[in-house]
């Protein structure tokens, strides 16, 4: 009997037994499975955008981020000039004076508001603001005709006036003055309050103390402009996850599970604008010197889900590697369709994670999602491998991957280090188990 195979039969047998072709097929399947993984990232970003939309909506009803600017004392100056026709022209300019000292001491009480399945961080703050004005300002006397002390006013910038909870009364020397809504310095302070300063002619060239209490609501952020020649800000809050930002970081800070305490200090020499000026726009320079604190959700669920999805390629690659090694070591042929089903089960993990985490704690959602995905793949591999030994190896690998990923997500500052160490360990294990395989003489079983 002639058992010689035809060229087509030889080619077909090569297709079934070629390790290189098998690896190419697995690689193509893995790349194709990155498409649904990418779609999952889009879903996460969409849900995160919806969360931000809700955050903006709730903040707009409570009060937005708050920034405190001032107080700034403004005095109109009248100058007289002669033009080219020897006609006298009067021109009014404004002298702006910043406080020599500014101290802010405040307590921030955070709250979480819910809208559907979303949470928004807002706060109520109680701020005690005090300081000292040195009114011995140097004024350009050239052409100065009159100092209009009776029209002097003070401005306090508050970025969202809806957050003011109580009437503001400013103690100016021995006088107590109620403020009025509206900023009279629309360029430097688009939003704020103002008040007329009494008896300024008597106080001029003197040192005058001031103070006021400010009970203010806001959302997520509270910041300050260091207008004082020496500005000191001290804040306390039970919020455990602050993010200090801006042009100055706290000189001292203590952060724990019970909250935080932070102290800032900024001097005149630390910023790029003077203590007094006449008719110059300092708005941008002042804004550049701001500092403050964000009350953030610690590694919120969407950030964690996005970070976990970035490891999709690694997860799929490792599980496919285990399946391929089982083919090589156990001589069990696995069809590309079976690889595809396993890959889809891995992608299902991320969909379950983001959907469940919106309704419960992220760690619980991770446990459920990882458990469902692992159970699906392990039960399926029992039939595919027909070997409890290799099924146990695969289950251990999946458990190790999900455990490694969970630990990496918790350690935000050490994520890159953990990832590097994990990949090194994985490569070392793979090299160990494949060290004795002769790849040139290797064929996949054609059963």
Automatic annotation (TrEMBL):
InterPro entries named in the record: Uncharacterised_IM_CreD
Coiled-coil portions: none
Keyword Transmembrane among record annotations: yes
One Pfam family it belongs to: CreD
Keywords assigned by UniProt, alphabetized: Membrane, Transmembrane, Transmembrane helix
Ranges that cross the membrane: 21-40, 311-330, 337-356, 362-381, 388-408, 414-433
Source superkingdom: Bacteria
Keyword Amino-acid biosynthesis: no
Gene Ontology cellular component terms for the protein in this record: plasma membrane
Name this protein carries in UniProt: Inner membrane protein
Native source organism of the sequence: Marinifilum flexuosum
């Amino acid at each position: 009997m002639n058992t010689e195979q035809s060229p087509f039969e030889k080619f077909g047998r090569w297709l079934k037994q070629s390790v290189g072709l098998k690896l190419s097929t697995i690689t193509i399947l893995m790349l194709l499975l990155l498409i649904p993984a990418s779609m999952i990232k889009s879903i996460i970003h969409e849900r995160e955008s919806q969360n931000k939309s809700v955050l903006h909506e709730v903040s707009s009803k409570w009060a937005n981020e708050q920034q405190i600017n001032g107080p700034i004392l403004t005095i109109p100056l009248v100058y007289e000039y002669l033009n080219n026709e020897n006609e006298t022209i009067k021109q009014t300019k404004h002298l702006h004076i910043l406080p020599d000292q500014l101290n802010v001491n405040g307590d921030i009480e955070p709250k979480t508001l819910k809208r559907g399945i979303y949470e928004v961080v807002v706060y109520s703050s109680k701020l005690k603001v005090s300081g000292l004005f040195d009114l011995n300002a140097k004024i350009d006397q050239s052409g100065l005709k009159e100092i209009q002390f009776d029209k002097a006013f003070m401005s306090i910038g508050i970025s969202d006036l809806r957050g003011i909870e109580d009437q503001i009364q400013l103690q100016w020397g021995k006088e107590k003055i109620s403020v009025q809504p509206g900023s009279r310095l629309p360029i430097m302070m688009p939003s704020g309050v103002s008040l007329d300063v009494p008896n300024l002619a008597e106080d001029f060239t003197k040192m005058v103390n001031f103070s006021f209490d400010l009970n203010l609501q806001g959302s997520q952020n509270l910041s300050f402009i260091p207008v004082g020649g020496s500005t000191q800000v001290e804040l306390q809050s039970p919020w455990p996850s602050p993010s200090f930002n801006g042009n100055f970081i706290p000189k001292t800070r203590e952060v724990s599970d019970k909250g935080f305490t932070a102290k800032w200090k900024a001097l005149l020499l630390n910023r790029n604008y003077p203590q007094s000026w006449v008719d110059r726009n300092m708005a941008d320079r002042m804004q550049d010197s701001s500092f403050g604190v964000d009350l953030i959700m610690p590694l919120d669920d969407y950030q964690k889900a996005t970070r976990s999805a970035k490891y999709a390629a690694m997860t799929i690659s490792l599980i496919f590697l285990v399946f391929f090694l089982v083919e090589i070591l156990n001589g069990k042929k696995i069809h590309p369709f079976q690889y595809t089903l396993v890959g889809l089960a891995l992608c299902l993990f991320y969909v379950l994670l983001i959907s469940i985490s919106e309704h419960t704690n992220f760690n619980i959602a991770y446990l459920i999602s990882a458990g469902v995905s692992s159970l699906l793949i392990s039960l399926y591999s029992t039939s595919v491998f027909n070997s409890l030994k290799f099924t146990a190896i695969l289950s251990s690998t999946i458990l190790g991957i999900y455990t490694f990923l969970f630990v990496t997500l918790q350690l935000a500052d050490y994520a890159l280090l953990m990832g590097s160490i994990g990949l090194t360990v994985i490569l070392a294990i793979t090299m160990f188990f494949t060290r004795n395989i002769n790849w040139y003489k290797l064929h996949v079983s054609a059963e």
